[in-house]
Amino acid sequence: MSNGAPGRPGSPGVDLNVTSTKIVVAGGFGVGKTTFVGSVSEITPLTTEALMTQASVGVDDLSATPNKVTTTVAMDFGRVSLDKDLILYLFGTPGQHRFWFMWDDLVRGAIGAVVLVDTRRLSDAFAPIDFFEDRELPYVVGVNCFDGKMHHRTEEIRDALTIDPSVPIIPCDARNRQSTKQILIQLVEHALRQPSLV
Ligand SMILES: Nc1nc2c(ncn2[C@@H]2O[C@H](COP(=O)(O)OP(=O)(O)OP(=O)(O)O)[C@@H](O)[C@H]2O)c(=O)[nH]1
Ligand SMILES: [Mg+2]
C-alpha cells in the first residue's frame, strides 16, 4: 500500500497517517459494477457510459437486465474512506468482452478485486475469476442479488466456479452503500491475510 497523502511531507494539512490504495471492481457484462462504484463512492463517480445501440443486439445479452441502456466503455472511478486513515480508490472495469484488453492496465497496482457475479448467469463469472486467479491477485466474490434473490446458495456457487475455500463469497445489493462497503471491508481484510502483503 502507498501513502496517498497529497503534497510534500510536512506541508500544512497533509496527514502522513493516511494510506490510500487501489481496488478493482470487475465482473461480466451487466452484473452491476458501475452501480457498485456509484453506490459506495463518496465523490461523484467518474463514469464512461455509452448508449447501447442496435449494433449490440445479438452480441450483448440484455435478457437479465432489460432496463439497461448504457454500458461502460473504459472504466468507472470512485473513492471511499473506509476509516479516517484508509482511503480506497475504486476502478470499475468494462464488462463487454471487446473491452477486456483494458483489464490488465486497470488492475496494475491494485491490492485486490471485487468480482461481482449474477447468479442468474453464473457461467459469465468463470472468465473474470480466472483472470484474477491467473494474476494471483486477491479477490472476493460479491453476489449481486438482483430482485433480492440468490438463485444458488453460497456453497453451490463455490463448487460451480471452483473457488478456493479461503475466498469470501458475499451476497450484496450493488445499489446499497452499506452492503457495498461491507464487501470492500472484507476485501481489504482478505488482502491483508495474503502472505505477499505481510
Ligand atoms: N434490481 C437490481 N438491479 C440492479 C442491481 N445492480 C445493478 N442493477 C441494474 O442492472 C443494470 C446493469 O448495471 P450496471 O451497473 O450498468 O452494470 P455493469 O456491470 O457496470 O455493466 P457493464 O459496464 O455494461 O458491464 C442497470 O440497469 C442497473 O440499474 C441490483 O442490485 N438490483
Ligand atoms: Mg459498467
UniProtKB/TrEMBL annotation:
Which protein are we looking at?
ATP-binding protein
A Pfam family assignment: ATP_bind_1
User: Which keywords accompany this UniProt record?
Assistant: ATP-binding, GTP-binding, Hydrolase, Nucleotide-binding
GO molecular function annotation: ATP binding; GTP binding; hydrolase activity
> Quick one: signal sequence residues?
none
Write down the superkingdom of origin.
Answer: Bacteria
* Species of origin: Lentzea tibetensis
Q: Which PANTHER family match?
A: ATP/GTP-BINDING PROTEIN-RELATED, GLIDING MOTILITY PROTEIN MGLA
UniProt similarity note: Belongs to the GPN-loop GTPase family.
